[in-house]
Amino acid sequence: MTASISIGTDSHGKDVLVDVEELLATRLLVQGNSGSGKSHLLRRLLEESAPLVQQVVIDPEGDFVTLADRYGHVVIDAGDYNEREIVKMATRIREHRASVVLSLEALEIDAQMKCAASFLNALFDAPRDHWYPALVVVDEAQMFAPAAAGDVSDEARRVSLAAMTNLMCRGRKRGLAGVIATQRLAKLAKNVAAEASNFLMGRTFLDIDMARAADLLGMERRQAEQIRDLERGRFLALGPAICRRPVAVKIGAVKTSTRGGTHKLMAPPVTSGEDFQELLFAPEAADAVPVAPPRADPPPRAAEDIIRALADSPQARPAAPELDFGQNEPVVMTVLEEIVADLGDAAPSIATLYQDFGVRCRMKGLRTPPLDLPAFRKRFAMAQAGMMDAADVRWEPAMRAADPLPEDMLAPFLLIARAAMQGQPCPDDAALARAYGTSSPGRVRRLIDYMEKLGVIVARTDFSGKRSIGVPGLGLSTAVAEG
């Protein structure tokens, strides 16, 4: 038994069907230049399959929130929630099989990528009992899985690309079927695009994109010219869930639309130049906004405003809030100790930790965080290793020995270096994993191998399984410990 839906008609007027069960196993890639009808196609697919399967939509522009009005999707406005809340909601989505639209419209591109990564990772990491089938639709996928570095941070690109790769490469066993749409194949990471077995290719003009589309559709290069001639709303379809040979599809009508509707030609108002002159250059007083009547209740205040008000209050603020570096340092050390103590097994992002650091500093009377993000990253790594006082000359050799390492490896290395300096047993894998921000034993092993290749450590494991690690830059070694 198959569950098929119609996405449109072919050149003979016959319905072109998509087998949803097969689509769950084989994934879908949609490509087309801006204005080719990708969003219309995705909306048709979502509307037709809504009664058959759970749907999760990653929506960077807020185009699909109107599905909630007719099909009952839950809209999550990512701008209203923090990372922990997004992860918790994603976990509940898998448990309760709710169809949702994650709207990223209110976020900047870096934040969109990080939010989508956290959300997708939580879907991916759900307990096995919650691995129900779901279509995961990602519009503008080139934003979340870019083929090359752009104007976004390396951290945002790395976590977002990893999450998209997991979705397309390993999501099937967890019930997650990726449906990704992109404006240009050349902008989309190849290892993400290559995992799709079904394709809907819309109008595109650049030779490199036409060549890749033709390769995916199994067409000869000279046949690729027809991709340039496709009309808006027409796509070439191929794949085990659709058809075994390329077929042209005219996408059918939809029942919902974007919040703003479709932009159509609109003539300017008929008026004289003098009227426009008066409207555009009217005195400022004529354009003054009328004063609104006072509210019975004050509007809600943002948490940041309340925290700032507390820091500015006479009771909370010391007589001299702007302290110099020497006076700031005890506050920094105290706050770092508190954060490390409260961290436990959690592994929040460094941006989340820095935000927490700023809040705690303000609560202790500092109006602005005394460290910028790079300095905080270094001090937090030292704090995780128990090196709270950055001015302590005992830690200078360890910091010099860490110079060849990337920033994210500083904390586990310093943990090893401190153990070597104090003659303590080698930190176990669990301690190194917490310092590295992971729960994977495999990543810890690869971390140790990488640091060995750089020459900053030398690991030794005897036949009884006891491990010690030497630090050549210090001329010291940890005591042996169980590996």
TrEMBL record:
Keywords: ATP-binding, Nucleotide-binding. InterPro entries: AAA+_ATPase, ATPase_Atu1862_pred, HerA-like, HerA_central, P-loop_NTPase. Residues 24-214 form the AAA+ ATPase domain. GO terms for molecular function: ATP binding. PANTHER family: HELICASE MJ1565-RELATED. This is ATP-binding protein.
